[in-house]
């Protein structure tokens, strides 16, 4: 077979041509840029109103109803007031409507992202000298934005970060959250500009599942104190899960009976409704708004039963109405959280793109991953000016959207209008809502992630390495911290791949009878060995890290180390010459000369050719080429020929550049074969 000759590409000219093309500006290019950057301009004029509007309105209303209680509940995870969660839900839906390419995903608050934001907020509050105890009874207020209801009302002069104005705990907390969100959005936009979406490839399914499950355990642990109504400090740093549980058991005697009873009732109602909804979802036109019903009933009971005043049950407090004037995130705070924003940006992007791709495949359309990165980036950058925190796509809400007939992101606008209605008029009505009810909503929403524990046996049967990656990532995320857990998961999964390539499967092949095919002699029955030929398969790239394993496996399976054999021969030849010089016809072993010749080779070498099956070797580095050159030379000294079979073009090119076939490639046809059978036939024809 003759290789095609490829014309050399002048990369400099190609780069200059691309640069000139990208820098040119014409009306057509400007229009295309705007249409690509705002995909809504493409699909909205083609919107089939009669066909789509009912499904979009219904799904938008349902998601809006679900968003309100979730937004209020997830504010506990983020360590912020509920009003900021509502802002986040509103702006994220509007911006993704304009910039997103997925028709179905629901972008907004997400428990995992809220937890990551809350951990950074808590750490910075602690460093700034604030008290993290948010369980103090809220002061009564009129529900306006001017009334700053803070559990820690001590003003704090923020000269530590270069801010000269005095700022309370809530002000500083949302300042940290918006700075973190802005930086995460900037990272995502930069990743989109430089097309770094490939970073998401390093987050395997096992890593993401383990990370989500470990973080779910952390979320559950953080909500237990609200469930039973105890007042313990919010733990920070590594080992937060263990420390929190220790504090819970130390203070279990202080549990608030009212909160315990309320939590038990709410969990039973929520879980029962969820299970019934899952069982009869094919009969229901839309999911039951159980969370909203629970919140309304619990708020009415708490208000008229005066649970806060009589039983000291912790409640949400005043939620203001309207919008706070926009404010630029503080630059000095950005510097403090710049490193924390990186994992937040990656996790937010990965969850959004993976969900977008999953539903695009299900409903037969395409998305643009790079545009998704821009969309989620601006869903963080723009809302950060309006006192919002980081967002991402959420699987549970997306499943609800699709099940209720969602066709386009018009449903996101409807959901935003529902949230806006709460923001402008209804928010103060949730003043008496108990925090334990919000904790119940959060915990029940974790059912999907916690059910991953049931999948461990099945996962183990499918792939033991992936199961180990899941366990390590989950453990590190839960027991150390979420950010460290994500990093540990990525590093550990990459190490597993490296280890698998360092010690891959190796085998000697036998011939399938009456065919020209060859397979592993240890795995298949009734294979016939080829006389005078050994066929060796190495199932991995050959590079510096597995060079020694390649050689050891080859020597072990062929039962011949050419270096030891050559050294042994030289040793006996030297001894033989010494005895002959002395005129002694008997050797040092007391044997005759003829007998010594037999002793030079301890056993008969049972092959004269070694065929290396390179079908699984995807690439060679310099060390790999030198290794093949080394075995070629060593076996040649023993009069054993080395033949390569099934090499891909990349491997052949590496061998050529490394001088394996000589300077003029004259012996290439006698050393390289396109099938194992051709190599075997050639070896049999050799003398």
Automatic annotation (TrEMBL):
Instruction: Give the way it sits in the membrane.
Output: Multi-pass membrane protein
An example of a Gene Ontology cellular component annotation for this protein is: apical plasma membrane
- Give this protein's Gene Ontology molecular function annotations: secondary active sulfate transmembrane transporter activity
Residues covered by the STAS domain: 523-683
Which top-level group of life is the source organism from? Eukaryota
Catalytic activity of the protein: iodide(in) + chloride(out) = iodide(out) + chloride(in); nitrate(in) + chloride(out) = nitrate(out) + chloride(in); oxalate(out) + 2 chloride(in) = oxalate(in) + 2 chloride(out); oxalate(in) + sulfate(out) = oxalate(out) + sulfate(in)
Q: Which InterPro entries match?
A: S04_transporter_CS, SLC26A/SulP_dom, SLC26A/SulP_fam, STAS_dom, STAS_dom_sf
> Where mainly found?
membrane
TM stretches of this protein: 52-76, 105-121, 172-194, 206-228, 248-272, 333-353, 374-396, 408-426, 470-499
Similarity annotation: Belongs to the SLC26A/SulP transporter (TC 2.A.53) family.
The record's annotation in NCBIfam families points to: sulP
What this protein is called in its record is Sulfate transporter
Give the organism the record lists. Toxostoma redivivum
């Amino acid at each position: 077979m003759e290789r095609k000759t490829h014309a050399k590409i002048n990369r400099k000219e190609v780069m200059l041509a691309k640069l000139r093309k990208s820098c040119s500006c014409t009306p057509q290019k400007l229009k295309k840029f705007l249409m690509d950057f705002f995909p809504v301009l493409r699909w909205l004029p083609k919107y089939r109103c009669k066909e789509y509007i009912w499904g979009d309105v219904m799904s938008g209303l349902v998601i809006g109803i679900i968003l309100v209680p979730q937004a209020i509940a997830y504010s506990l995870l983020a360590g912020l007031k509920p009003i900021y969660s509502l802002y986040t839900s509103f702006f994220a839906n509007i911006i993704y409507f304009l910039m997103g390419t997925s028709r179905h995903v629901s972008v907004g608050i997400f428990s995992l992202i809220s937890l990551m934001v809350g951990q950074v907020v808590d750490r910075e509050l602690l460093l700034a000298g604030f008290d993290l105890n948010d369980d103090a009874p809220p002061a009564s207020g009129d529900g306006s934005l001017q009334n700053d209801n803070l559990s820690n009302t001590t003003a704090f002069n923020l000269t530590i970060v270069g801010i000269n104005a005095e700022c309370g705990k809530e002000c500083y907390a949302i300042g940290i959250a918006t700075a973190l969100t802005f930086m995460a959005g900037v990272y995502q936009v930069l990743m989109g500009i430089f097309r770094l979406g490939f970073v998401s490839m390093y987050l395997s399914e096992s890593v993401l599942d383990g990370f989500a499950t470990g973080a779910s355990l952390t979320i559950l642990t953080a909500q237990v104190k609200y469930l039973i109504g105890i007042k313990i400090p919010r733990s920070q740093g590594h080992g937060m899960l263990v420390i929190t549980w220790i504090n819970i058991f130390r203070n279990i005697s202080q549990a608030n009976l009212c909160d315990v009873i309320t939590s038990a009732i709410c969990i039973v109602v929520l879980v029962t409704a969820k299970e019934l909804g899952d069982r009869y979802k094919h009969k229901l036109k839309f999911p039951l708004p159980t969370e909203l019903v629970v919140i309304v009933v619990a708020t009415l009971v708490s208000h008229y039963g005066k649970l806060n005043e009589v039983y000291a049950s912790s409640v949400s407090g005043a939620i203001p109405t309207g919008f706070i004037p926009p404010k630029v995130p503080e630059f000095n705070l950005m510097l403090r959280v710049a490193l924390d924003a990186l994992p937040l940006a990656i996790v937010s992007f990965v969850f959004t793109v993976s969900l977008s791709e999953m539903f695009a495949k299900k409903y037969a359309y395409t998305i643009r991953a790079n545009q998704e990165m821009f969309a989620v980036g601006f869903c963080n950058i723009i809302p950060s000016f309006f006192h919002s925190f980081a967002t991402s796509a959420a699987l549970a809400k997306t499943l609800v959207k699709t099940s209720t007939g969602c066709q386009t992101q018009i449903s996101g606008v409807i959901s935003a209008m529902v949230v806006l209605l709460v923001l402008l008029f209804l928010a103060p009505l949730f003043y008496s809502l108990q925090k334990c009810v919000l904790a119940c909503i959060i915990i029940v929403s974790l059912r999907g992630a916690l059910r991953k524990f049931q999948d461990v046996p099945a996962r183990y049967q499918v792939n033991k390495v992936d199961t180990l990656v899941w366990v390590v990532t989950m453990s590190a995320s839960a027991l150390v911290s979420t950010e460290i857990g994500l990093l540990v998961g990525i590093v550990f999964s990459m190490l597993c791949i490296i280890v698998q390539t360092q010690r891959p499967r190796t085998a000697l092949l036998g011939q399938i009878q009456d065919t020209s095919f060859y397979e592993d002699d240890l795995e298949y029955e009734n294979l016939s060995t080829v006389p005078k030929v050994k066929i060796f398969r190495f199932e991995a790239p050959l590079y510096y890290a597995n060079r020694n394993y390649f050689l050891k496996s080859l020597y072990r399976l062929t039962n011949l180390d050419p270096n030891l054999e050559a050294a042994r021969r030289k040793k006996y030849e030297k001894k033989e010459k010494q005895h002959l010089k002395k005129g002694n016809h008997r050797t040092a072993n007391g044997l005759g000369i003829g007998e010594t010749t037999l002793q030079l080779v301890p056993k008969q070498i049972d092959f004269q050719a070694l065929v290396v099956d390179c079908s699984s070797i995807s690439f060679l580095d310099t060390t790999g080429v030198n290794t093949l050159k080394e075995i070629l030379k060593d076996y040649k000294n023993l009069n054993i020929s080395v033949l390569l079979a099934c090499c891909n073009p990349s491997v052949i090119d590496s061998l050529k550049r490394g001088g394996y076939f000589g300077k003029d490639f004259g012996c290439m046809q006698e050393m390289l074969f396109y099938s194992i059978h051709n190599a075997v036939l050639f070896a049999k024809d050799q003398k």
